[in-house]
Protein 1
Amino acid sequence: MEEDPSDQPEKGFKKEESRGDGGPSISELKDEVNMREAAEERLTKLGMLLEIAESRGLDVKSAKEFYNSSRESLYRDKNALESMKISDRSNSELTAALNQEKYGLLSFPKWTYISFFMAKYGLFSLSYGMIAAVFFGYILLYSNMNKYILETVPLWAPAISGLGASAQIMVGTVDDIKATGVVQNYKRVWYTALPFLAAIFGFIAYILTDLGEVVVAGDGVSLTASNITGNLTLFGLEQPLLYNTTLTATGAANLTAQKVESFEAAVGDNMRMAVCFIVGYATNAFIDKLMKLSKNI
């Protein structure tokens, strides 16, 4: 039996996939999901803008009503297209409210208008991150790096951690702007404490990474041995004064220690600097982990 030519798809056209139950095709379902995601993104951004506007004292009552209506269309009526249309109307109302506050005395922009865009684009958090970075950078460049905190941790350790937290604030703000066009995470004043918390974490990080150095005879006398072809033996060190004297072995074929109750090795200042910076950069994540840990204790 010959097939009916009308059942064959025309040349150059792909037959649309169907679910087989008379419902919408797979491509239509995908389009619907994409439109819903786009509507949700618009609502999320619009909600953040309205929150900023209200915090600046703008009259956005009309825009807020359209915003709520848009949410109802999306989540109650399942109508993404209508939701997007209403959210566009809400955005227009917000723009009109902003334009009313645009100019003030002598045609200069009002602070309300300026602060709205500063908050929208995260200029407050960016500026704070830059100022904090300059502060900790000044400590690193112009302070005496031989100073120690509690005679244990050098000053540069918390300073580098603070620099890492400052970088994290700026990177997080830029990431928000690139993603949605509106700052999300760094819009509250809580982030101002991050660099100083990072300095504390840097102090602890240095202690944890500072496994010490193998040292002898803390009377300030230096012991230098070079071109040794035999054995160099140090004994009688059961209770040495370990301070400011370092024993360094470079290129040794064999280094043997017997009857050692404890061994400490230095990881090097360059590695500690990297660790302190990473700890500072991850301060926000550490806070979340510590909060979860404290709840479980």
Protein 2
Amino acid sequence: MFIKYRKWARKLLFFGIFNYLKLILMPHTGEHKNPMKIFGMEPSTVCWLGYSVWPNVYLYRKKQKEAVIQGIHEYLCQFFGSSINYTILSEKKTKELPPILKGVSSSDIWIPDGKTQEELESYFNDYPIQEYLKLSGKLNSRFIQNSVVYRSEYLKIDNCGNYGEEMLLNFKGRHLIFVTTNFRDSTIIQFLNKWKTNQGFQNVNTLFINLHLQNDNMILFDKMLDNLKINRNTDVRHLKPSEDALLVKWREMTEEMTLESRDYLIRDGDGQGATVMTFPMFFLFVVWNSTENTHIMGSKNE
């Protein structure tokens, strides 16, 4: 199920064998009953078909949105069971957080400007543990330093062109992706050096930073990442042209990603290796698993 949440409380759901089903919550003066108890709703719930808007569109009164959203979600969970991946998406610029629903495996949430740190922490403390969480908005100084958000296993951040240092330095999970978020070279250097010397980020398996505008081929920022500066101030190693390239694999949601690289970093103490790639428009850091790149592990003590 894919729910799209916006100012007009429009709902868009994708599930199972259906292509889509669209639910719109908005004020209406007419009295339309629900004799068929659509989605398990009581007959007294105002409901009508919006043929002029889109096929398979059902409209409800806006003031009923909380009850309608909860009711439809419970109905679909009972109908399809746990075999369906349910996702919540709150649309950009909405002023409200989406309702908290059980059995949701992933969420893509716009953080409204008017919410305080305390309100956001209370909301996410009540939020169910999920496989994937994406947050968008102006996110600097929006969360407390030890926020539950930073303990998400898989976190994706869209900071709308603002700097992402705060989110990176507070992250305690395993997979972190930034899109449309700016970074200073010094922050990347700090991250790599702390990981190498066992001073931080020991749980991080993947870090990806993309300076492109999302869903576009444009570059958002005038200042790009400086590969030479980052490598000069870290212990990133480089394979010789005669040496085999490094192969690293990781999973992004349900998709397995594969990459070859010639740059890497070896952590002090345990000799754990990680691939490092820095380009003007993006940065990638991926920790190897125990079976990857064993042909260079002998260099870990050099």
